[in-house]
Design a protein that fits this description.
Blueprint: H1 2-10, H2 16-36, E1 44-52, E2 55-63, E3 75-76, H3 92-100, E4 112-125, E5 129-142, E6 149-160, E7 176-181, H4 193-196, H5 203-210, H6 220-232, H7 238-249, E8 255-261, E9 267-275, E10 280-286, E11 293-300, H8 303-306, E12 313-325
Parallel strand pairs: 3-12
Antiparallel strand pairs: 1-2, 4-5, 4-12, 5-6, 6-7, 8-9, 9-10, 10-11, 11-12
């Protein structure tokens, strides 16, 4: 260990394009060794080679093992069944590369993508009421946008906003709403598997697509990050799924957050982006073993700007499962909904 520390001390610190290439080489080695030794718990020593002007510089990276979280991983296809030894990631690029490699569902024509999740966000009630609502939501989305789908929302027990009580009269836990999901008429509002398959399959093209999402303001990079987070958990073909995560790597200002919990309380590793004007960090959370997508959350980092104590989790999601079904439940249109045309 002493010799290793001395060796590392002699290696110049890398940055910019060189670091990116080193990370890419390291992640490739990491995946190969994980696949070859899925049950290994030993520290992993990866060596990435960098060549400049015919001179090779060997860089050794030592990662220590971590204990996998006790909570169950996200159920996306067979991702949970392929859990590997937990290795603490060292960069945003590494986390996103590993997440990009996680397989997803592959629905056929006429089938439905069924997504079960937990959602938390701020809610306002009455003149001055403020609390955090929570609900369990299940959606049945036609994979090719040809059939009527459904959405079922069950209210969970609300949480108080810091410094306030939950207002009286908020929707009771256990109450359920069901509504139809009609096939989308316009391409920009479609959220089905077939539509996502028409999106760019490369990082730069996907980053350009991010710019089409609504939003604006001084921090353009934040809106790129926000667009990417809206697509991170969507069921889509492997090429587009990979492009989303590779595009997120190109957003300047993204940071490795480390340990985090999703809306279901499952532990994972997070990467995020701080919106300085809002005083809020927007995070993506991944399983610490499989790097499957777990969910997202927004956390206060500046109390004065956000109007809540630092560390407060405002909005959060937890993607519990993504599966494929041949049918959606028969649901009548809600009180304010028109029948699907």
């Amino acid at each position: 260990m002493r010799q290793l520390r001395e060796f590392r001390g002699e290696v110049p610190e890398m940055s910019g394009a060189v670091l990116t290439e080193a990370e890419r080489s390291f992640v490739t080695t990491l995946r190969a060794q994980r696949a070859a030794r899925p049950r290994s718990r030993r520290p992993l020593l990866a060596v990435a080679g960098l060549a400049t002007a015919g001179v090779a510089v060997a860089v050794a990276v030592l990662l220590t093992t971590t204990t996998p979280p006790a909570a169950p991983p996200s159920a996306v296809g067979s991702a949970s069944a392929s859990a590997k030894a937990g290795l603490r990631p060292v960069s945003v690029a590494e986390v996103l590369d590993l997440a990009a490699a996680v397989p997803g569902v592959t629905p056929g024509p006429g089938q439905f993508v069924v997504t079960e999740s937990i959602v938390q966000d701020q809610a306002f009630f009455g003149d001055d009421g403020r609390y955090l609502y929570r609900m369990k939501r299940t959606t049945w989305i036609s994979s090719d946008n040809t059939k009527q789908g459904a959405i079922r929302s069950e209210n969970l027990a609300p949480l108080p906003f810091p410094g306030r009580a939950v207002p009286a009269g908020v929707p009771a836990a256990g109450s359920v709403d069901e509504n139809v999901l009609c096939p989308a008429k316009g391409g920009e509002i479609r959220q089905d598997y077939a539509f996502y398959g028409t999106l760019p399959a490369d990082a730069q093209g996907m980053l350009t697509y991010f710019r089409k999402f609504p939003g604006g303001g001084a921090d353009k990079n934040f809106y790129l990050w926000k667009a990417g987070t809206e697509l991170a958990g969507a069921a889509m073909p492997a090429a587009q799924h990979t492009a989303v995560y590779q595009a997120l790597k190109l957003v300047p200002g993204a940071q490795l957050v480390g340990d985090a919990q999703d809306a279901a309380g499952r532990g994972g590793v997070a990467v995020g982006y701080v919106n300085a004007a809002q005083g809020i960090r927007y995070e993506l959370i991944f399983d610490g073993n499989t790097f499957a997508y777990l969910g997202s959350r927004s956390v206060v980092v500046d109390a004065a700007k956000a109007g809540a104590p630092a560390g407060t989790q405002l909005a959060a999601t937890a993607q519990l499962s993504v599966t494929v079904s041949d049918a959606a439940p028969p649901v009548a249109p809600g009180p304010k909904q028109a029948p699907c045309a």
